[in-house]
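Example 3.
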Amino acid sequence: MRLYTIGQVAAMFHLPISTLRYYDKEGLFPNLERRAGIRRFSQQDLKALQVIECLKKTGLEIKDIKQFMQWCTEGASTYAQRHALFARQRAVVEAEIEHMQRILNMVRYKCWYYETAMCEGHEERLRNLSPADMPQEIRQAYERAHMLTPEDTLDTSDFANNGALEASASDEKLGEC
Amino acid sequence: MRLYTIGQVAAMFHLPISTLRYYDKEGLFPNLERRAGIRRFSQQDLKALQVIECLKKTGLEIKDIKQFMQWCTEGASTYAQRHALFARQRAVVEAEIEHMQRILNMVRYKCWYYETAMCEGHEERLRNLSPADMPQEIRQAYERAHMLTPEDTLDTSDFANNGALEASASDEKLGEC
DNA sequence: CATTGACCTAAAGTCAGGTTCAGGTGTTAT
DNA sequence: ATAACACCTGAACCTGACTTTAGGTCAATG
């Protein structure tokens, strides 16, 4: 069975050697062999590394990956745990995507805002615009961006009550969200 | 014009005081007033803070936000820069969402894999499954998860050429991606 | 025999976006 | 007058996933 040095593995996977040593130190290669102190990567370790790369993409942390590796060495008795790990991760990723969608709508709105400001040369009209006056597409983006979720509610009620909208005496204004 | 202490602003925005001091130190309140060393937040500063919260959601870094604040104080001459900032950010967020979609597909596949493993009590059948044998929905997830993009290509060609698929002598195997 | 090159270690450094701490000032309430 | 409270500062600390550094072993090559 062929064995590889750390340098060979680094080249194969286009990873820095330091990263492999770090993974090893973190316990991601439970059965890594050594001879005279030098790491010798087996086929099994290469497969483990493939799995590590894959799990990293799913957004799992190193310590979760280590746990997963441990479970894998324990066989069929840990299917339920492994399934739970991914089920949890699925929820995390789904939430994250939804969050990013809202952010995208916010950014889209901002793009439109400054495009328009550039065309008109000023923000006067823009500043007094209500969503109803915006182009359909932008209004939708704006509204989707401002749908409140528990996670990122921006409660400025006190602020508003204290007169947020009174004309400020400042010469320069900031674009609103 | 009403002025607020740092504690009042923190309460209004549900932010820790330390965060506001940090933002100030980073230059996010260019015109923040002080009396006897004590910060006094004006309406303008509260608006700035609203904008900061908003821009943070768009994924911008503190230093970009600082830059944006600076541009805002420079008036209409910086519309183009501000637009460019958001246009760039839009591309970033769009790419990130696409990336997350692929990750989600990977996680979905993993969920299915372990659900099935739990049902069957082992991975024998699963391990030899080709995409064609998977349920329609899972096959799609699997295939979408494995579409290669420049960003996260996993080039294991050398590895494969060196016999990655030779049966490993290890007693325990790891689930593949 | 000296240098290069591949490997090893422990420990410190890096990045962002804060948070915490130790120590100090100033105003108000008892 | 002394305690409580809100504010201030600079500096250290935090997380995660690495990377870098400093110093050391060992084998082959000129």
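Chain B has two domains: 6-81, 92-155. The beta strands of chain B are 33-35, 38-40.
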